[in-house]
Amino acid sequence: MKEIKTKKAKHVPKIKLKTQHRQSASNRKVESKPQQKPRINEAPNKVVNSPEAEQEKPKVRFITIDNEDAGQRIDNFLLRTLKGVPKSHLYRLMRKGEIRVNKKRIKPVYKLAINDEIRIAPIRVSEEKDNVSTGLAVVANLEKQILFEDERLIIINKPSGMAVHGGSGLSFGLIEALRALRPEARMLELVHRLDRDTSGCLVVAKKRSALRHLHEQFRDKNVQKFYHALVKGHWPDKLTRVTAALRKNDLKSGERVVIVDNQNGKESETRFRVLDRFRGATLVRAFPVTGRTHQIRVHCQTSGHSIAMDAKYGHEDFDEQMKSKGLKRLFLHAASIEFTHPLTEKRMKIEAPLEPSLEKLLSKLIKES
């Protein structure tokens, strides 16, 4: 080949040489094509014939309802079971008969019974989980705040500043963080709530039966929650009960506040007891007989003894004094909760210690005899 090329270089005109080069280049391209074909076809064949791709195809699902899930509406059950599927889509599937109970069409308000069989047509469920990383310090710290845990319940000392659930601009709350910490838990639901700035005992149910049992106790007033609050001034020993009716009020700014309204408000009652006295402040124990929004905070305010560092119902001068001593949060803490365990039926009381910053503040105050 080398000899032929040399001979042509001497006698063939330049134009023909260019043609020869083009032909050579064309030949090189033709020769290279067979080598590229397997690589081009290889990837599509893998995707089409992959067993994993076959497994990912959604299939018909059958779910038999047990005692834990009986009694709840099917729409709520499906929202919890088929995470990632929009509520509107589930409603559409029920209307079209793609989701049936005991082979019959049902409405979203249908209440599930034991041994009901739910048939769910093939539906692709989002693989996305709650966008909560267990690597975040605030999430990892929750593990240390768990006061009690068994197969039915989690009782946690909720930190101040953390909402109980996400929403209103918050990417996640305590319940979403707990679900990230306990991915194996079939369900985790709040039994009750605490204000974002309030710390202390919060109960989370791990089973539907436990949630129902505790809700009944709350309705029957068999749950006792005691709070500790540092309030302005000298709380009178005789002031043991506040019964001002409360009403929610939406301001023009969109902010919601609770006001005293003895004509149109809801009946409310909080019982108080003095725990310790300081110069210009009193540490009180509050027991809310009813569970209205911001009840303890408003009952303290209307009595003339606002809670320290309460952004909505506080006293500016008192807050400045407490701030100068290092207080950076609302001094309201759910110190203990007492109820009947849903499985053992034994009465139990869980206590949550004050966080170090609150203990440090109390140590700076001057006690009164």
Could you give the distance between the termini?
113 Å
Output mean pLDDT. 84
Morphology: elongated
Output the radius of gyration. 34 Å
The total of helices stands at 11
Secondary-structure content class: alpha+beta
Question: Which parts are unreliable, with pLDDT below 50 for 5 consecutive residues or more?
Answer: 1-49
**Largest beta-sheet characterization:** 10 strands, mixed
Proportion of residues in helical segments? 25-40%
Helix/strand order, N-terminal first: HHHEHHEEEHEEHEEHEEEEEEHHEEH
Number of strand elements: 16
Q: Looking at the chains present, what oligomeric state does this protein adopt?
A: single chain
Strand fraction equals 15-25%
Description:
By secondary structure, the chain is α+β, with helices and mostly antiparallel strands. Helices cover 32% and strands 23% of the residues. It is built from 11 helices and 16 strands. It has helices at residues 2-11, 14-49, 51-56, 74-81, 87-95, 137-140, 174-181, 208-219, 295-302, 316-324, 356-364, and strands at residues 61-64, 99-101, 104-105, 117-120, 146-149, 153-158, 189-190, 199-205, 224-232, 241-242, 246-250, 256-260, 270-278, 281-288, 332-340, 347-351. The strands form 3 sheets. Strands 5, 6, 7, 8, 9, 10, 13, 14, 15 and 16 form a 10-stranded mixed sheet that branches. The longest helix has 36 residues, at 14-49. It is elongated. It starts with a helix and ends in a 5-residue tail after the last helix. The model is unreliable at 1-49 (pLDDT under 50).
